[in-house]
Amino acid sequence: MHLSRYLKIYSCPDRPGNLLLYSTRRGATILLPESILRAAEEGRLAPADQETLVRLGFLVPDPAAEQEELRGLLDGANRHRKIFNAIVVMNLDCNLACTYCYEGQRKEKRYLSDETAELLVTFIEERAISQGKEVILTFHGGEPLLSRELIGEISGRLKAAAEAKGVAFGFNMITNGTLLTRKVVEELVPLGLKGAKVTLDGPKDIHDRFRPFVSGKGSFDLIVSNVKEVCELIKLQIGGNFSRDNYREFPRLLDFLLEEGITPDKIHRLQFVPITGTAGDAMHPDFNDGCLSVNEPWLIEATIFLREEIMRRGFSTPPIVMSACMVEFADDLVVNHDGALFKCPAFINWQGLSIGDLRSGITDYRASHDLDAWKTDECLECAYLPLCFGGCKFMQLVRDGKIGGLDCKKPYLDATLEALVRQDVQYRK
Ligand code: SF4
Ligand code: SF4
Question: Taking residues 86-94, what's their average pLDDT?
Answer without folding.
Answer: 96
